[in-house]
Write a structure and sequence with these properties.
162 residues, alpha/beta, Rossmann fold, 5-stranded parallel beta sheet, two-stranded antiparallel sheet, 5 helices, globular
């Protein structure tokens, strides 16, 4: 089977090094995060430039993988990406990355579930998006190995659920 095309959603400033570990697993094809210089250039152009970059990067992706660090749930752009993915009926899942070692800062505290702040209506019933989107919390003894061994299956399940 060909590698799935995914978009990784995350808090850039806090988690880009942990995200790079997940990207290096190589089980799926993901959009490379913008380099710090590119991201700063995009950010300086304002919100519409950021939205355009996100919209273009998410195009033709079958699944959005939210990599959840300590501050991910409060990130404005992660919220935008989650809402966009849900509205476009893309596969959507979360993976907690607080137990991945960042070479600069080590591990971080587990962040809040970013799907808790969304309310959707399904068949006339209101539900938190966190009731519908699975967030995986990899084994703390080997978070990298757990993600490596399961990410493809998690993505397939998220796509099937949509």
């Amino acid at each position: 089977m060909a590698k799935r095309q995914v978009f990784y959603s995350f808090h850039y400033d806090n988690d880009v090094m942990r995200v790079q570990l997940v990207r290096n697993i190589g089980a799926v094809e993901g959009i490379a995060p913008a380099s710090p210089n590119d991201w700063e250039s995009i950010r300086q152009k304002g919100d519409s430039a950021i939205k355009t970059w996100i919209d273009n990067a998410m195009q033709n992706r079958s699944c959005i993988v939210v990599l959840i660090g300590s501050e991910t749930a409060s990130c404005k752009w992660v919220k935008y990406e989650i809402e966009k993915a849900w509205n476009e009926k893309k596969g959507l899942l979360g993976i907690y990355i607080h137990n991945l070692e960042c070479p600069n800062t080590g591990k971080c505290k587990q962040g809040a579930n970013p799907f808790d702040s969304f309310i959707v209506t399904i068949g006339g019933t209101k539900k938190k998006l966190s009731e519908l989107v699975v967030c995986h919390n990899p084994n703390s003894r080997d978070a990298y190995g757990d993600i490596r061994d399961n990410i493809s299956d998690w993505i397939e399940a998220a796509i099937k659920a949509r």
